[in-house]
Design goal:
Helix content: 25-40%
Strand content: 15-25%
CATH class of the largest domain: Alpha Beta
Oligomer: single chain
CATH architecture of the largest domain: 3-Layer(aba) Sandwich
CATH superfamily of the largest domain: Zn peptidases
Number of strands: 18
Distance between the termini: 20 Å
Strand order of the largest sheet: 1-2-6-3-7-17
CATH topology of the largest domain: Aminopeptidase
Structural class: alpha+beta
Bound molecules: ligand BES, manganese (II) ion
Number of helices: 13
Largest sheet: 6 strands, mixed
Number of domains: 2
Radius of gyration: 23 Å
Length: 455
């Protein structure tokens, strides 16, 4: 569609400047000091949706951060696409590792550096601009709804209730999400699944107070040593997870699926060089893509205890802590695995310490059927604008609400991510390539067109 291209070409500098304005708001959902920024960001999203041509946009307060809902209904009888995204971002820390200020978007070599540039402001904003293009060129032929939340990065604690309470409002024929990655513009891919998550925190207590490590050391178990041993025992020599029952519900990939996965290009040397590591690590018997896509994992997100300040303090600490999470694959269940993790940590603790384990947020894994209309439309849209049929791959990250959307609304979710794995999501120097931003805006109208034609 030449009209879409022309419209984008004429307005592309403004599109970018508008995105920058969103990126300048530090909408960090995890920190209460940013509550005002969250509201301001929600207001700006609302304004932008209205400017783009939505007929109605409302901000729904929750017990946490607000949800922005907007819609453009041209005819209730026509197909409806529900676009989901999130305007909240991860904390920018550690700030000293940023080469440019995290909330002052800066373009270097065609890349937009800013917290949230890729995850997810830059990506959901592609959908807002695609709506504008469709409206302005009089070519919108379906209904589009937007649900842009402010708590994805903290596990979407209030979105589930909102979805359950607003089924009629959110009623649609598919959910479209740009909040993941593709291999590259040259080798396009589409995520056909995301992993789930179970997250716990453990507190290991030894003596009832911190002790002089000379007076007591050697006679009393050090909770840090004990915790370290417990953690080390969670993987065996093949890097399999040792928790009994952990793999019970894992849906094993068929040889045909593994063959398809092997088609996605992978440059091991470039991968290692980018990360500054000499050797890869992972579950024996699986490729890197399988390890991050179709296999569950167990990760230590943080470990602390004792004295970590300046200088050396000789102390035998009373407590040690760790934050432990598991990435899940179909058909593992988040609650079941979390409970399993908690019980296992309590069970393997020796008698010289006590273990208290608590639950953080989680989410279920999700799989998009390749034969679904939504996937077919996304594949054709990407083929149209990037010139190649995208390779279906599994994304390693999690979007907790996906499984719930399917359960509550009875519709499929399709992922059309335009980020790259190397975009430094959640890390310092997060970026989003300008070319990917513009390609995304170019591709999305085709999704609506094809989805509507195929329905
Ligand atoms: N956009 C990511 C999820 C993602 C990243 C999917 C890369 C596929 C590829 C999302 O914002 C995210 O970070 N999710 C969290 C989940 C959480 C905080 C419950 C995650 O995956 O850790
Ligand atoms: Mn995201
Ligand atoms: Mn994220």
């Amino acid at each position: 569609m030449q009209a879409w291209k022309d419209y984008q070409e004429k307005n592309k500098d403004r599109f970018l400047e508008e995105l920058f304005e969103l990126l300048r708001i530090p909408s960090v959902s995890a920190k209460s000091e940013h509550k005002k920024d969250m509201l301001q960001c929600a207001e700006l999203v609302k304004k932008r949706l209205l400017d783009a041509g939505a007929d109605t946009v409302n901000i729904y307060p929750t017990d946490g951060h607000p949800i922005v809902y907007g819609e453009k209904i041209i005819d209730p009888k026509k197909p409806t696409v529900l676009v989901y995204g999130h305007y909240d971002v991860q904390p920018a820390e550690p700030l000293e590792l940023w080469k440019t200020p995290p909330f002052e978007p800066t373009v270097i070599d065609g890349k937009i550096f800013a917290r949230g540039s890729c995850d997810d402001k830059g990506q959901f904003y592609m959908h807002v601009k695609a709506l504008e293009i469709l409206v302005q060129t009089n070519s919108l032929n379906n209904n589009i709804k937007f649900c842009i939340e402010g708590e994805e990065e903290i596990g979407s604690p209030h979105l589930g209730k909102f979805v359950a309470d607003h089924k009629e409002l959110l009623k649609a024929d598919c959910v479209l999400i740009s909040d993941s990655a593709m291999i590259s513009l040259e080798t396009p891919s589409l995520d056909v699944g995301l992993r789930g998550l179970s997250y716990i925190e453990v507190e290991v207590t030894g003596p009832n107070r911190d002790l002089h490590s000379g007076v007591y050391g050697g006679a009393v178990a050090n909770p840090i040593t004990i915790l370290a041993k417990m953690i080390a025992s969670l993987h065996d020599e093949n890097n399999h997870i040792t928790i009994p029952g952990f793999y019970d519900d894992v849906l094993e990939s068929t040889p045909a699926e593994r063959e398809l996965m092997a088609k996605a290009p992978f440059d091991e040397e470039a991968f290692k060089a980018d990360l500054g590591i000499k050797e890869l690590w992972g579950e024996n018997g699986y490729t890197t893509h399988e390890r991050t896509g179709v296999r569950p994992t167990l990760e230590l997100n943080g470990i602390w205890g004792g004295y970590t300040g300046e200088g050396a303090k000789t102390v035998l600490p009373s407590k040690a802590y760790a934050k432990i999470s598991a990435r899940l694959v179909p058909n593992q269940k988040s609650d079941k695995i979390a409970e399993m993790l908690i019980q296992h940590m309590e069970k393997i603790a020796p008698a010289n310490v006590t273990v208290k384990a608590t639950l953080h947020h989680g989410g279920e894994p999700y799989l998009t059927p390749l034969n679904s209309t939504a996937y077919q439309a996304a594949s054709k849209a990407v083929e149209t604008t990037l010139g190649k049929v995208p390779i279906p791959v599994r994304g390693g990250g999690s979007i907790p609400i996906c499984a719930l959307f399917e359960k509550e609304l009875g519709i499929k979710i399709v992922f059309m991510g335009f980020g790259l794995d190397s975009d430094n999501l959640h890390s310092p120097n997060e970026k989003f390539n300008m070319a990917n931003f513009y390609k995304g805006i170019e591709t999305i109208p085709y999704f609506h067109k094809y989805f509507t034609e195929m329905m």
